[in-house]
Amino acid sequence: MAIVEMRVPTIGESITEVTLSQWLKGNGDFVKLDEPICEFESDKATLEFPAEAEGKLTYVAAEDDDIEIGGLVATIDTSFAAPVSNDTPAKEEAPVAETKTAAAPAAPQQSANYATGHPSPAAGKILRDSNVNPADVTGSGKDGRITKEDAQKAAQNKPAPAAATSTPAASSASAPAAYSRDTREEKMSRMRRTIASRLVSAKNNTAMLTTFNEVDLSEVMKLRKKVQEKFVEKHGVKLGFMSLFAKACSNVLMEMPDVNAMINGNNIIFNDFVDISIAISTPTGLVVPPVRNVESMDFHEIELAIKGLAVKAREGKLTLDEMKGGTFTITNGGVFGSLLSTPIINEPQSAILGMHTIKQRPVAIDGKVEIRPMMYLALSYDHRVIDGSTSVTFLVKVKEQLEDPMKLLLNI
Predict the structure, then answer these.
(1) How confident is the prediction along the chain (412 residues), in pLDDT tens digits per residue?
(2) How many C-beta neighbours within 10 Å does residue 115 have?
(3) Alpha-carbon separation of residue 371 from 256, 284, 365 (angstroms)
(4) What is the DSSP letter of 108?
(5) Is the N-terminal amide bond of 348 cis, ω within 30° of 0?
(6) Mind telling me the catalytic residues?
């Protein structure tokens, strides 16, 4: 008997342990070489773990277990041969009539692919939150995998609880029963725990302050309206606010390297490039993959890069390399309706810009009151690296570029 031990591989320099989020093969199943047997959730991404040999799988770890790098996950007994029934029924079915009924129990095995009926990480989160059984959902993804869209449809089509509609007399007779006092406790996901620890670390280990300003987006909105149709026709993507803000920040960051720097022990690292991390909300938490060398990119390149990262993030397909780095971060709470906030620094970076919702507000223009599309901007910064005057100047320069897009386009 030859037993192959399946241990957590080295994933990245900063990752010391992972969470076994989901088994893709059953305990005792026969697995093939390189066939994914489970999914790991690391600090930054969800990864599939392929079998290192062919044979019978035996669980050692359980779902939701935290396992250190090098820890034992499962074993594979290579002395077990592949089941013959998977290959022979198709050849013997024609000459023997009785084999139709004999082969019926094997029907569920017609798709031996691990993905069939299994949700993606994003879809699994939606199904768990909606209390929908994955077995009741038909997957439309590759090899029958349940996609995020499948999960959303299943959650929307979930029938309302029968007790809420079928027994109105009972509910009215015992009114206090309508007020639930139930509680439940769930284990935090690996990503949520990582987010929590890093936010606390940023609060405790940086001298964080926030400065505010407001920007009049009238000219930016006129520019977008004027060029949008031709921009989409040529580049296949809309000119959004995020690329305009990212370009304005990159221009000013190249001019003010202190805001683009970070502390390393007793030294300060200055970057001659601008990698802007874009905060993206996903079903499992917030991720901040960077768009690299924004200072050298055109607006359509920034838009395409952000769009590509957002799609990957929400499908749980971001790689570890795509999550690394970043010299500055932009977060847009405005998409959720936030009017004003104090964003937390994304360590080891030294500053983060917070965008907010656009509101039509009365402002004084040349002695007259006009209604303008206004947005509050917030810059949280590490005072150990960035002086107060530097932070205020940075925000004013970003504001000036956005209020006069000609300065933005010409980088002046």
Answers:
(1) 688 899 988 876 667 888 888 898 889 899 988 889 998 887 767 788 899 988 999 999 988 888 888 899 999 988 887 776 544 444 444 444 444 444 444 434 444 455 567 777 667 777 777 788 887 788 777 667 787 778 878 877 776 655 544 455 444 555 555 788 889 888 777 777 878 888 898 888 899 999 999 999 999 999 999 999 999 999 999 999 999 999 999 999 999 999 999 999 999 999 999 999 999 988 777 889 999 999 999 999 999 999 999 999 888 888 878 888 999 999 999 999 999 999 999 999 999 999 999 999 999 999 999 999 999 999 999 999 999 999 999 999 999 999 999 888 887 7
(2) 18
(3) 33, 39, 9
(4) G
(5) yes
(6) 383, 387
Give which of 121, 120, 122, 153 is closest to 136, Cα–Cα.
Answer: 153
CA distance 229 to 237: 10
The answer, as to whether pTM is greater than 0.90, is no
Judged by DSSP in three states, 55 sits in: strand
Residue with tokens 């206004």: 374
Domains of the chain: 3-82 (2.40.50.100), 115-161 (4.10.320.10), 208-410 (3.30.559.10)
Q: Residue length, the chain?
A: 412
